[in-house]
Write a structure and sequence with these properties.
single chain; Alpha-D-Glucose-1,6-Bisphosphate, Chain A, domain 4; eight-stranded antiparallel sheet; globular; alpha+beta
Length: about 200
């Protein structure tokens, strides 16, 4: 399996799981104007960077999209294992391994050709506003994150995603950033399309 394809698979899993960057780059507060300008075109906004203060090689991502559905409808799509298989093209399965009050642990498997990868993560739910994610196993070395759903006055919902993630094998920063810039907007677009159809 080519290295780039393996990287793309792991990033898709990391994105859908959601991984939050706890360190805030100086430029993040300046992203709001750029994000709003992009959102006005109807497209998702995404940016990727590496926090040089981290020693684990992880990359950070911030992305946001406006969806013409209420938070509750989007939440149902985001937390549905069967829907995640459709949102992430290479995903082959999603299984809930454990559940508790306000949390669960999920395993997602991706496949491209003969290559397979898996991700296990804990989700903590604050319905219908926030999903916090943390690594619980699988093929990501670093995985921390949050999805936030904020209702807008016009009936749409602004869905934002903040993440830090790193696969369990060495990846050049430039290649990792390129893959994330390509995959993040597509997955958000797929989420929007499915949520708006379901609404």
């Amino acid at each position: 399996m080519p290295f780039r394809l393996r990287l793309s698979l792991l990033l898709c899993v990391a994105l859908l799981a959601g991984a939050m960057a706890w360190a805030t780059p100086a430029a993040l507060s300046d992203l709001e104007d750029d994000a709003l300008a992009t959102l006005q075109t109807g497209e998702p906004f995404a940016t990727v960077w590496r926090d040089e203060s981290r020693t684990d090689g992880a990359m950070d991502v911030y992305s946001v999209i406006d969806i013409d559905s209420p938070p509750e409808a989007i939440w149902r799509v985001m937390t549905d294992c069967e829907a995640s298989v459709q949102i992430v093209d290479k995903m082959r399965s999603c299984e809930i391994l454990e559940t508790g009050t306000g949390w669960d642990i999920r395993e997602q498997a991706l496949r491209a050709g003969l290559f397979r990868t898996r991700n296990v993560f804990r989700s903590e739910y604050d319905f219908p506003r926030e999903i916090r994610i943390s690594k619980a196993g699988g093929d990501m070395r670093v995985q921390e994150g949050v999805w936030t759903l904020r209702p807008l006055e016009d009936g749409r919902t602004r869905v934002s995603y903040r993440a830090t993630s790193c696969p369990d094998f060495p990846v050049p920063s430039r290649m990792l950033a390129k893959a994330m810039r390509r995959d993040v907007p597509q997955i958000l677009t797929n989420l929007r399309d499915m949520a708006e159809r379901a609404n």
